[in-house]
């Protein structure tokens, strides 16, 4: 039996991006033309990251659909200094409605400019932070300031070019397939720095542990803030 499966039986405080590389959409789906692709993985638990990396590099290759990948290198991003106001970009779609909730419509469009959009993300974020047991009840109660303000220029440009920033995506969870609406757009989050750090590490919205809701700092150059990732041996 895998010791790490026992150590992290229900752990879900992690987030990851889609594979980043040169792609082209074809009749059979997404085709990669890059010799190398990148996966961004994040968690506030350093040990969990090390367990994940060790397990990944024990595999001679990883098969995703028809794509065969060979793990090569791991780099660590420098920790950003997060304040009460942070401009983020979405590097994976943001899901704001839980399809498992009875009576919900996970494909419903809700404008990011509305208070409802922020309120729904606030509730899901506080629920996840409380469930993580990394914060006291007093801290959770103090995190009442939470507002998402989308980049209006970006949304205007998207509409003018008749492009979409909100699409329907499939998600599989507990042997069930759901369809959810995911949003991808830049926004400014006004919140306590501890909340900012949590969503940066763990993602924002529902199904972060499925690869949704991963964020990055806007206008950041990842090539200027990486160092080799050193894994500690057991």
Automatic annotation (TrEMBL):
Biological processes annotated in GO: defense response to virus
User: What Gene3D superfamilies does the record tag this protein with?
Assistant: 3.30.70.1890, 3.30.70.1900
Tell me where in this chain the CRISPR associated protein Cas6 C-terminal domain is found: 79-217
GO MF annotations in UniProt: hydrolase activity, acting on ester bonds; RNA binding
Q: Keyword RNA-binding: yes or no?
A: yes
One Pfam short name: Cas_Cas6_C
Q: Name the keywords, alphabetized.
A: Antiviral defense, RNA-binding
Q: Which residues cross the membrane?
A: none
Q: Does the keyword Repeat apply?
A: no
According to its UniProt record, which protein family does this protein belong to?
Belongs to the CRISPR-associated protein Cas6/Cse3/CasE family.
What is the protein's name according to its record? CRISPR associated protein Cas6 C-terminal domain-containing protein
Source organism per entry reads Sporocytophaga myxococcoides
- Lineage per the UniProt record: Bacteria, Pseudomonadati, Bacteroidota, Cytophagia, Cytophagales
């Amino acid at each position: 039996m895998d010791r790490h499966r026992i150590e992290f039986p229900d752990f879900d405080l992690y987030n990851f991006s889609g594979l980043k590389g040169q792609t082209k959409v074809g009749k059979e789906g997404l085709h990669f033309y890059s010799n190398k692709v990148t996966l961004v993985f994040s968690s506030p638990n350093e040990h969990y990251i090390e367990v994940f990396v060790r397990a990944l590099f024990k595999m001679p290759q990883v098969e995703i659909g028809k794509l065969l990948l060979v793990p090569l290198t791991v780099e660590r991003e420098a920790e950003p200094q997060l304040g009460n106001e942070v401009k983020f970009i979405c590097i994976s779609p943001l899901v704001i409605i839980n399809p498992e909730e009875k009576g919900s419509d996970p494909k419903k469009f809700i404008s990011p400019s509305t208070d409802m959009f922020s309120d729904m993300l606030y509730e899901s974020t506080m629920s996840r932070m409380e469930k993580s047991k990394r914060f006291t009840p007093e801290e959770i109660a103090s995190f009442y300031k939470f507002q998402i303000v989308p980049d209006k220029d970006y949304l205007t440009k998207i509409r003018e070019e008749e492009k979409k920033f909100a699409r329907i995506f499939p998600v599989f969870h507990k042997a069930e397939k759901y369809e959810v609406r995911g949003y991808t757009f830049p926004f400014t989050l006004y919140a306590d720095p501890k909340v900012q750090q949590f969503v940066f590490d763990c993602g924002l919205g529902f199904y972060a542990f499925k690869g949704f809701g991963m964020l990055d700092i806007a206008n950041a150059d990842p090539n200027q803030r990486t160092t080799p990732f050193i894994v500690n041996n057991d």
